[in-house]
Design brief:
Layout lengths: L7 E6 L8 H14 L3 E7 L20 H11 L3 E5 H6 L5 H6 L12 E3 L2 H9 L2 E5 L4
Parallel strand pairs: 1-2, 1-5, 2-3, 3-4
Helix pairs in contact: 1-2
Length: 138
């Protein structure tokens, strides 16, 4: 009987919800990995992928709400969700501290996502057995 080696993954999502399949495919993979006994250490959003962490997305009621589904999945499985700070700021996503720093009228990062630097991606690359990228196809 073959022994299955359990893996721990860092997922990097660079494709935006609603304009790419990246967030949907990554979520399907993450659910399957957890169901098979593997672990997902963190999900790192980069480039257009940071839109997944916006608390202001409101898709029509007959469409999937990918940001909400990701938030619930991360919370339910105690997985860290990180949006790259440079990508987030360029795209108008800010947390409480960046709101104060730039004197902006509001913040819009969806819980449980946080904003952090590329060091989170580097750490995930070093500590996970696999890093998987889900690109937007651009």
């Amino acid at each position: 009987m073959a022994t299955i080696s359990l893996q721990n993954y860092t997922l990097v999502i660079t494709g935006a919800p609603y304009s790419s399949q990246a967030p949907q495919t990554a979520l399907s993979f993450a659910k399957a990995a957890i169901a098979a006994g593997h672990t997902v250490d963190r999900v790192f959003l980069y480039g257009e992928g940071v839109h997944l962490a916006s608390s202001l997305s409101a898709p029509p009621s007959d469409e999937h709400h990918w940001a909400d589904q990701w938030s619930r999945f991360l919370s339910d499985n105690a997985i860290s969700g990180v949006a790259c700070i440079a990508s987030a700021l360029r795209r108008g996503l800010v947390n409480d501290s960046e709101q104060k720093r730039y004197e902006l009228p509001a913040n819009n990062i969806r819980e449980p996502f946080i904003i952090a630097g590329l060091g989170e991606w580097v750490e995930g690359s070093m500590t996970s057995s696999r890093v998987l990228y889900f690109h937007g196809g651009d």
